[in-house]
Every structure is written in structure tokens, then in C-alpha cells.
What we know:
CATH topology of the largest domain: Jelly Rolls
Strand order of the largest sheet: 1-8-3-6
Mean pLDDT: 93
Helix content: 40-55%
Order of helices and strands: HHEEEEEEHEEHHHHHH
Distance between the termini: 45 Å
CATH class of the largest domain: Mainly Beta
Structural class: alpha+beta
Number of domains: 2
Radius of gyration: 18 Å
Low-confidence stretches: none
Amino acid sequence: MSTPQNLTKIEAFIRQIVQPNAEEWEAFANIVQVKQLRKKQLLLEKGQTCNFIAFINTGVIREYSFQNGKETTVDFVSDNQFITDYQSFIMKTPTIQYLEALTDVDLLILRKEGINSLFDKYKVWERFGRLIIERVFCGVEAKRKKIIATTHEEQYRDFAAAYPQIVQQVPQYYIASYLGVTPEHLSRIRKKV
Length: 193
């Protein structure tokens, strides 16, 4: 069960987007589950069907998969961000992704059934869900365009500016994998910037 303390960050995040009234907020708070992960613990692994969306209060989670037998980092998610495998969550299909804690992580879990119940009962939560998915889509689109239009050096510079805490907390070979370069090449890039 969540406490008001656990909900401080997610409430601030939500209220930047929508303004639930007291009844709507209580309904939301009632579906939230608190979870802690230890460093290296998996939140989701290949073959499972993702039935949750998580909000990270503190910590860093890495999303990765295996492509042609090679481990590839797809994304990093940290404080005040949501994480899930949206394709598995929406389509109810087994995931090919892994979600791994790179640090100790405190997060809030929202189960699919609870989310759908909120969507059915409260327009504000359906609107919030739509607006979040729009943000996710725009983020993915921006990332795709950036990969096409920028050099690895520019991508690293942008990544380091946007996520300085991740650069400090995460092994560099994960960042190299995320950027699509070797650890040695990332080392050369870091020396330049």
C-alpha cells in the first residue's frame, strides 16, 4: 500500500499535466503499489507479459534486449519517469525486453487492471493516459530523428546534458551500447567533449 510520502513525486508529476479532484486522486492512490528493487534485480524479463506501468521515485533502470545474440541497451529511465514495455502492455504479448535495476530503485507500480478501472470511471485519468502516451510517442520520434541526423559525439553530448546523473551512475559500456558504439569509441568521444 502506498503512503502520501511515496506519492509526493508522482503527484507533482501528474499535477503538471492534469488536475484530479480529491475523489479522483484517492481512486488513483488506491491502485498504487510500492516496490523496491536491488541493484541488478529484474523488473521484467523476456517471455513475461507486462501488466504494469511503473513510476520511478529514485534510481535507474536499464531497458535492454538481445539482438543477433548481442545485448543492446535500448533506454535508461530514472527519477520521476514512467517505465514499462508499452508493446507488451498494450498488446498483451510476451516481451523481448529486460528491465534491470542499475541502482537500488524505489518505484510505484500501477497494474493494468487498476489503470483500466480508472480509465473507465474517471475522464481525468483517461485524459492523463492519453497525454502520457502522446509524450512517449513524441519522445520516441525525436530519438529516431536524432539517431538519423546526428553524430555519435553529438548524441553523447545531448545524452550527458539531459541525463548527467545516469552518466555518473551507469557503467560506460551500457551507455556505449545505447549509443551504438564500442566502449573504446565512447572513451574517445568522452575525451573530446
